[in-house]
Design a protein that fits this description.
It is a single chain. The chain is an alpha/beta fold. It is built from eight helices and 23 strands. The strands form seven sheets. The protein has a five-stranded parallel sheet with strand order 3-2-1-7-19. A five-stranded parallel sheet has the order 9-16-10-11-12. Bound molecules: flavin-adenine dinucleotide.
């Protein structure tokens, strides 16, 4: 493939934003169009379950670059707009409301979405998941001191939100089906350390339990029934049970997908004009001799840089070891590598 004249990026998040920045940084002068279905410019999500939820960070501090950067660098940004389908023969993306965009190279940076709670009552008012600024705004209004928050899932997001809620004076119960917190991402020793920290901060952590039903009155949540039949009061429920990659556009266009859009180490899919980066991609994990998805800022940035270098025929940066972080209370957990 020659250097493309028109690059279209679907998904205006961490990875899509980084692809724009890296393309211009590497001297690309062709057309870049960035399409996102959220109403705002690319922003960082980590503070959503940390300082931003706590009210310690203003919204403008979330954005990766100010609006002027996109204007100054001649990036066409189309917000509040969903890409509906890809025509690989005509090399076009069809947008909501009937618009279409032609591309020479298409970058899918569609991210992921929270795995929906497969429970009766999950659509009651007061039951939340957490992915976007809009979600946090909704949750924040009900985070009132004295209320009881039930968190389903003791992963990073659930535990970070639990820590924020405790600081805000809510009582917090965390339900986890595994026998320990953070079981998917860290060792038994670290799990115990974090469980102890939460308990000392007053969080009630219940492991080996499955939330079975969300109960409510007048369409509003008021309790959660667990697998042991115990019913616990809940003014708010927050689900953090993992994510699903947004790979539907690719699947519908018959691009190879498994647990995400399959890409090679240059971020290219099985269509040489289409690339996928960030949470939506299933990439080679060179340090582990297998493929997999990585849900992290580090991965989104790394792949944004790699796709830009690939498209501009520059040397691609060497793949780093995956790394992650999590802030809970005054602790910062940093993990290099994948836990298994
Ligand atoms: P996103 O940032 O999700 O961007 C994808 C964008 O594409 C979204 O705006 C989406 O709405 C849009 N989109 C999807 N489909 C379409 C379509 N068809 N048309 C148009 N637009 C579309 N990572 C860490 O490393 N450390 C942390 O501490 C950490 N904390 C986190 C806390 C929270 C609350 C969350 C939600 C995530 C956290 N992460 C953290 C994960 C990290 O934020 C993600 O891995 C990262 O945002 C992935 O970037 P992305 O660009 O792939 O996806």
């Amino acid at each position: 493939m020659t250097i493309p004249e028109k690059i279209v990026i679907i998904g205006a998040g961490q990875a899509g934003g980084q692809a724009c920045f890296s393309l211009r940084q590497l001297g690309y002068e062709g057309s870049i169009t960035l399409v996102g279905d959220e109403p705002v410019l690319p922003y960082q999500r980590p503070p959503l379950s940390k300082a931003y939820m706590m009210g310690e960070l203003s919204e403008d501090r979330l954005f990766l670059k100010p609006a002027a950067w996109y204007e100054d660098n001649n990036v066409d940004v189309i917000l509040s707009m969903r890409a509906l389908s890809i025509d690989r023969v005509e090399k076009k993306v069809h947008l909501e409301h009937g618009g279409e965009l032609e591309y020479d190279a298409l970058i899918l940076a569609t991210g992921s979405r929270p795995r929906p709670l497969p429970l009766k009552g999950a659509s009651l008012k007061g039951v939340h998941d957490l992915r976007s600024i809009t979600d946090v705004e909704r949750i924040k209004t009900s985070m009132v001191a004295g209320r009881q928050l039930v968190v389903i899932g003791a992963g990073y997001i659930g535990l970070e939100a639990a820590a924020v809620a405790r600081k805000m004076g809510l009582s917090v119960i965390v339900l986890e089906r595994a026998d320990r917190v953070l079981s998917r991402v860290t060792s038994v020793v670290m799990s115990e350390f974090f469980a102890n920290e939460h308990q000392s901060q007053g969080v009630d952590i219940k492991t080996d339990v499955i939330a079975q039903e969300i109960l409510g009155k007048n369409d509003q949540v008021n309790a959660v029934r667990m697998s042991n039949s115990e019913v616990i009061k809940a003014d708010i429920v927050l689900a953090g049970i993992g994510i699903l990659p947004n790979d539907e556009l690719a699947k519908e266009a018959r691009i190879a997908c498994e647990n995400g859009i399959i890409v090679n180490s240059e971020t290219c899919t099985d269509d040489p004009s289409i690339f996928a980066i960030g949470d939506c991609a299933e990439r080679p994990l060179v340090h582990y001799d297998r493929r997999g998805g990585l849900e992290s800022v580090h991965n989104a940035i790394e792949q944004g840089k790699i796709v830009a270098a690939t498209l501009l025929k520059k040397p691609t940066p060497k793949a780093d070891c995956p790394w992650f972080w999590s802030d809970q209370y005054d602790l910062k957990l940093q993990i290099a590598g994948l836990s298994s």
